[in-house]
Amino acid sequence: MFKRVLIANRGEIALRIMRACRELGVETVCVYSQADKDAPYLRLADRAICIGPGPAKESYLNISRLIAAAEVADVEAIHPGYGFLSERPDFSQACRDCGIEFIGPSPEAMSKLGDKVECKRTARDNGVPVFPGSDGAIEEEEEAVKVAAKIGYPVIIKASAGGGGRGMKVCHNELALRSNLRIASQEAQAAFGNGAVFIEKYLEFARHVEIQCLGDKHGNAVHLFERDCSLQRRHQKVIEEAPSPNIDRRKLEKVAESAAKMIRSAKYAGAATCEFLLDDKGDFYMLEVNTRVQVEHPVTELITGVDIVKMSILIAAGEKIGFRQSDVKISGHAIECRINAEDPAHGFRPSAGKINTYETPGGPGVRLDSHVVPGYVVPPNYDSMIGKLIVHAETRDAALDRMSRALREFKVEPIKTTIPLHQRLVDDAAFRKGGVDIKYLERLLK
Ligand code: ADP
Asked: What share of the chain is helix, strand, coil (3-state, %, to 5)?
């Protein structure tokens, strides 16, 4: 096992990784920007190192500063968390070049699954269902028109190197497709430095279901079943749960097994998530693979009893997964609400500032992953998430009731948060019924 690990992240995920390290007997080095210099979780690290000013480009996204901190602190490994540099093959490569273990996939495995065109090919080879669409990147306009005529409109143009929901264009007819192709490619070139685009069938009705996978360095891979993340706003997940309500379990398990097979075939070590959209017939189509730990990993931890963050560290240290697929069982139901410092009553505008009152929920089946304490000042520089409230109960209904109860206990003042929105959602009749689509929340908020 590693003696010392550097955490190249901030906020709740930095604290989450620190907790896992502590339980494994691993020392932690936490980096921070000047905007986070008073963050209370830094005191829990064995060592904290300032890596630059507030803007992420000059700190959490600065590879050379992170590597310098890792060398100064003499760590054996770096955990990237999520966001920031977590999905950058050049960061994984920089760690390798400096003899530091990257807690995540190799640059090769990350590139193979991170590039959408290449990932789709790997998926198809392993029996993972993908959207009908172009075979690879589009070379000629006529080719795109032909493919679209075959699969039927609407279609969506996507960038092979895309991310963050950017650079996608939905086309309802041939004229729109023709006029958008070149624009999409130019935008992709400007945004991602790679102009390759492809097209696939666009689903008007879709649910979001993703499969959590783990691979190790010994050629083993398992899945930890699914999470349902259909409640979204602007492609950002708002509530996640596991298992997925109203779903064909036989179909799901088949897809989950092929996802694990794909992870194995990519020689992938670490935690990975295969994201899928489901159509109104319950058929799965793979969207993409996230090559890192996800924000919503706790719901899977609660229903399977597997500590995904600890596993990612153990796997990087060369350990085997240590259990078989048949050992993974689902117990009960878990739900996560992302608590953001935003004002849902005013267009979700960010609400940074000092938190004077911070009263947290507790009791049976309640988990709060948050770096906030009373007096904490939410900096305006980063993502607005200040924590995740997660509950676990025997059934979905009991979990919803528990979440409703926990949200009522949660007081964060005077900044505005998404707590009132969550309170409304967990009591919403359609959501309680289960199986809402990814546009449900935006329709509800209109
Ligand atoms: P990114 O990597 O930019 O996040 P994704 O491929 O994950 O891109 O897609 C982001 C979101 O766009 C999805 O969560 C979904 O809401 C929507 N989307 C993407 N592809 C399709 C599709 N074929 N049909 C319907 N919606 C889609």
From this structure: 35, 25, 35
3's CB contacts (< 8 A; 6+ apart) are 26, 27, 76
113/126 Cα distance (integer angstroms): 13
User: From the CA of 349, how far away is ligand 1's center (Å)?
Assistant: 24
The pair of three-digit structure tokens given for residue 375, joined into one six-digit string: 């007096």
Instruction: Give, rounded to a whole angstrom, the gap between the first and last alpha carbons of the chain.
Output: 51
Name which of 9, 23, 10, 12 is nearest 313 in CA terms.
Answer: 23
Which atom number of ligand 1 is nearest to the Cα of residue 287?
6
Is the CB of 193 inside a 6 Å radius of any atom of ligand 1? no
Nearest-angstrom CA–CA distance, 422 and 404: 8
250-289 core/surface letters (b: 16 or more CB in 10 A; e: else): eebeebbbbbbbbbbbbebbbbbbbbbbbbeeeebbbbbb
Closest atom, ligand 1, to C-alpha of 201 = 23
pLDDT digit string (tens) for 381-403? 999 999 999 999 999 999 999 99
**Per-residue tokens: 289:** 């693979």
Query: Is the CB of 198 inside a 6 Å radius of any atom of ligand 1?
Result: no
Q: What is the mean pLDDT of the chain?
A: 97
Kindly report whether the global pTM for this prediction surpasses the value 0.85.
Answer: yes
The residue annotated as part of the active site, out of 10, 65, 292, 338, is 292
How far, in Å, are 302, 345, 406 from residue 410 at the CA level? 21, 18, 6
* pLDDT tens column, 145-159: 999 999 999 999 999
Q: State the burial class of residue 32 (Cβ atoms within 10 Å of its Cβ: 0-12, 13-18, 19+).
A: buried
> Contact, 171 vs 181, CB < 8 A?
no
CB-based contacts of 139: which residues, under 8 Å, 6+ apart? Answer: none
**Cα–Cα–Cα angle for 333, 334, 336, nearest 5°?**
155
The yes-or-no verdict on residue 307 having pLDDT over 90 is yes
Burial annotation 165-194 (CB, 10 A radius, 16+ → b, else e): eebbbebeeeebbeebbeebbebbbebbeb
Q: How far apart are CA 147 and CA 405, in angstroms?
A: 51
Which one, of 327, 332, 387, lies nearest residue 355 by Cα? Answer: 387
Domains along the chain with CATH numbers:
4-103 (3.40.50.20), 130-201 (3.30.1490.20), 207-444 (3.30.470.20)
As a whole number of angstroms, the distance between CA 248 and CA 70 comes to: 46
